[in-house]
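Page 42, continued from yesterday. The earlier attempt failed because a stray header line got pasted into the input along with the sequence. Redoing it now with the clean sequence only.
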Amino acid sequence: MLRSLRSAVLVPFVVLAAACASGTTDAATVDAAAKARCAQLAERALADNRAIAMLASLCDAAPKRLSGSPGSADAVAWGLRTMQELGLQNVRAEPCLVPHWERGVETATLVGDPAPLRITALGGSIGTAADGLEAEVVEVRSFEQLQALGDAARGKIVFFNRPMPRALRAVGQAYGEAVPQRSNGAIEAGKVGAVAALVRSMTTAIDEHPHTGAMHYDANVPPVPAAAIATLDAERLGKALQNGPVRVRLTLGCRQHADVEGANVVGELPGSVTPERIVVVGGHLDAWDLGRGAHDDGAGCVHALEAVRLLQACGIRPRCTIRVVLFANEENGLRGAKAYAEAHRDELQNHVGALESDSGGFAPTGIMTSLRDDAAAALKQRLLPLQDLGAGTFLPGAGGCGADIGPLHAAGVPCYGLVVASQRYFNFHHTAVDDLAAVDERELALGCAVVAFVLSVIADA
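This time it went through. Structure tokens are written below.
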């Protein structure tokens, strides 16, 4: 979600800038028409209220759709069916191999205290022995602190208890400050001879919901089991450690299987003038298995699909083809993103843009883009009608704008991302409560309208 890829994108910048400049002999008329188009899309999105029904349909059809699972295949079938119902053309599943990891039983308790610690295995973790493990806990807040412990951590469970910094207004930045302990904690624990890693969940909320997420191993470091602990129980464990040594009993039944076949789901709204030129729009179809992936990233899939429906419903047919891509395996491998870029490498020069939504279905606040300088200024001018929807934020020079379109950015494709009011995002991210009730139908609909308007601009090259 926060990956950054650098690439040279000068040529596409020039192409888009030229497109933005074309056909604008009467700026006032064009502005008025754009404002009317933006308003029409928003009004239609709110009045039809199709977005929340589409999201409910996905959550019902494939509530558990982690890559490699039976639910993942159900999600692909849903995507194909939904695209066909929306009248998209060239609808197909483009296969790719994806990892297959299963969670299994997961329990943890403080020895001598029957109340369970609410934990969940981190995605990709190895399991414990069938009867679990028991060890003393050492608490750290940084990798440097762990390294300083050295042999004192050998044979222990390392408890990474660094909270997301509350003082940071940008919640994504706060996530970035804390998430390395989830991503690499097991590696650092293995380096000092620990037997497991226990990681404070990635949220500022103090609640009972553990947050899963991807973690990594290093081939040169012995792997250890890794789990996230709910922040409420992280607080409890931290207080217990203040009173002396604490032992935890941990059981994780997770397993990694051989890769299996997954797929990106692809469909197109052909361009009215230059159909060979392509704008990609999409989100990732997979989701972690604790909740039903309503915000992450069912909302992103719906933003893309409903945006194309809105364009058709309002009689708006951009010059370029809009290609909707529901990407496989963003959460634990990016196999779908890589497979799409590889499968379409010979036509990437015809990709004039790529837009991703992967920040949830919250109220839209604006657009980020990889564009800079004159190209960004020209786009900003054309997106001014978004101010009427409360979505006037414009963030140029934002890199790849999303993990799944990162490979396209690396290939020189201009990239865009939907910006939303994200302060509550990490209350739901990768948890059991990422479900339909967490999504506001009007905020979701407005996000779809914003994506539709942006597509109507960048696909009119």
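Notes: DSSP finds 14 helices and 15 strands in the chain.
Reminder to self: strip header lines before submitting.
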